[in-house]
Write a structure and sequence with these properties.
This protein is an alpha/beta fold. The protein is built from 20 helices and twelve strands. Helix 5 runs parallel beside helix 7 and helix 9 packs across helix 18.
Length: 464
């Protein structure tokens, strides 16, 4: 069942743009399956709108499809019969027929029009300047090829640069919204589901969870007929060429090689050859580069590490892709047993850290922390790592945290270890220090007693 969840900020922005006098021009982009079309359809459901989905067909076919939609919208059979019409003529017809009520025009998969006609952005720029910008019209361009959308619409070199009144780069949903998709699940089950599927709405919709997580993985991921079985292949084939190199690179990262020299060494190529591939994957929101949260100039930092920026892709490259031959031979049980043996230590525990950082941000937003965390991330040096470092950039207060997804209760020694590592963190103008520890299995009695005496220590039993 399709479900529209969250996106309150994006809808509010679109409604604000719509309510302004005169025209508006908004670009919506992001990776595939993230919910861009669902957002648009939710926004236009109570508005006069023309929704056009571009295809990879020849340009004349796209023009005819758009003409048909416009003719139907304005109830004009004569327009529908016109042959050999141009984009300029169709938009001219729209401009001449818009009355007092604002009309929304959506061009979805905009990048396909730019693929079949490299001059389309220039054509649209002239149409906007001459025909549309003075009309009571709201134009939305939506696309999935992030790099192309940025080049064709957002970059300074684009003909459309400076025309837009706003843009939305849509991101996957946060952990807190998973309950909307799996209302009967416990918090711990939601952690597992988020670790496997991430926050991409399409993946959450198609995953049929039946109380047993491993049987659900068997049915929804390892089954050769399932939507998710080859989803990463379909996803990347639409976005990039030379897919073999990209797959090898992502697989190496999924196995725990996060430093550039490690990745290059495992691929047996010079680091310089990886720059283009990594940059493209970051543009596609498939990889992310992280630096210690305390780095003043992260873009220049030599401490950057590379991570897969999607939980499902990370899960798939760790536990499915290396075993495709076994799955093709129907050795599903072998693959499933491998997942059962490794998933907690090699996957769930790391996603748990991400969820805990989100938890801290939510607590801060609700003013339930003794500091206002406006910068949060991880910290590391060559010998130490801290799961959570949250900085209050106004007061100079800092929060250090550890996350333990284990079956044992956490004891007081973890606090002293955290405090020792925190002493090595260099933050300018640091004032007060606070500590937070998350534990799946709770805390020992002596640690709870100790925490009651400490005003700067917070213990959080999560999931409850």
């Amino acid at each position: 069942m399709k479900k529209f969840v969250d996106r309150e900020v994006e809808l509010r922005f679109l409604e604000n743009q719509f309510s302004q006098n005169g025209s508006a021009f908004v670009v919506i982009y992001g990776r595939r399956r993230v919910g861009k079309t669902a957002l648009i359809k939710e926004f236009i459901k109570d508005k006069k709108a023309i929704y056009f989905l571009a295809t990879e067909e020849v340009e004349s076919q796209n023009i005819n499809n758009f003409k048909t939609l416009v003719a139907k919208f304005f109830n004009n059979s004569l327009l529908d019969k016109v042959q050999n019409i141009t984009w300029e003529e169709i938009f001219g017809f729209i401009a001449n027929n818009i009355k007092n009520e604002k009309v929304v025009i959506v061009i979805d998969e905009f990048q396909y029009l730019c693929k079949v006609n490299s001059s389309f952005a220039s054509i649209l720029q002239k149409i906007w300047d001459k025909r549309l910008k003075e009309k009571n019209l709201f134009l939305i361009l939506c696309g999935s090829l992030v790099n192309m959308m940025e080049q064709q619409v957002l970059n300074y070199s684009s003909p459309l640069y400076g025309r837009r009144t706003g843009q939305i780069k849509l991101k996957p949903l946060k952990f807190k919204y998973l309950k909307e998709f799996f209302p009967q699940s416990t918090e711990d089950e939601l952690i597992w589901l988020y670790a496997i599927l991430g926050g991409v709405p399409k993946y959450l919709e198609v995953f049929n969870y039946r109380d047993d997580i491993f049987e659900s993985i068997r049915e929804n991921v390892l089954n050769k007929q399932s939507f998710l079985y080859e989803e990463p292949l379909f996803l990347l084939e639409r976005e990039i060429q030379d897919i073999g190199t990209y797959f090898s690179l992502i697989k190496i990262i999924s196995l725990g090689n996060h430093k550039l020299h490690q990745i290059a060494q495992n691929l047996s190529v010079p680091q310089t050859r990886l720059t283009k591939y990594i940059s493209n994957l970051i543009d596609l929101d498939i990889l992310r580069r992280e630096t210690p949260v305390t780095e003043e100039y992260p873009e220049k930092s030599k401490k950057g590490l590379y991570f897969i920026n999607d939980n499902f892709l990370s899960f798939w490259f760790k536990f499915v892709y290396p075993y495709k031959e076994d799955l093709e031979l129907d050795n599903v049980e072998f693959v499933l047993e491998n997942i059962k043996r490794r998933i907690v230590t090699e996957h769930i525990s790391y996603v748990y850290e991400d969820i805990c950082r989100e938890y801290v941000s939510e607590l801060s937003y609700r003013n339930e922390l003794p500091l206002k965390v406006n910068k949060i991330g991880k910290w590391w040096d060559k010998d130490n790592e801290i799961d959570i470092v949250g900085i209050d950039q106004t007061s100079g207060s800092i929060l250090y945290g550890e996350c333990k997804y284990t079956n044992a209760k956490v004891d007081i020694d973890l606090f002293y270890s955290l405090k020792q590592k925190a002493s090595k963190v260099n933050v300018k103008n640091k004032t007060k220090e606070y500590y937070v520890i998350f534990s799946k299995s709770g805390f020992t009695e002596r640690f709870l007693d100790f925490a009651n005496e400490m005003k700067n220590l917070i213990l959080i039993n999560f999931p409850k």
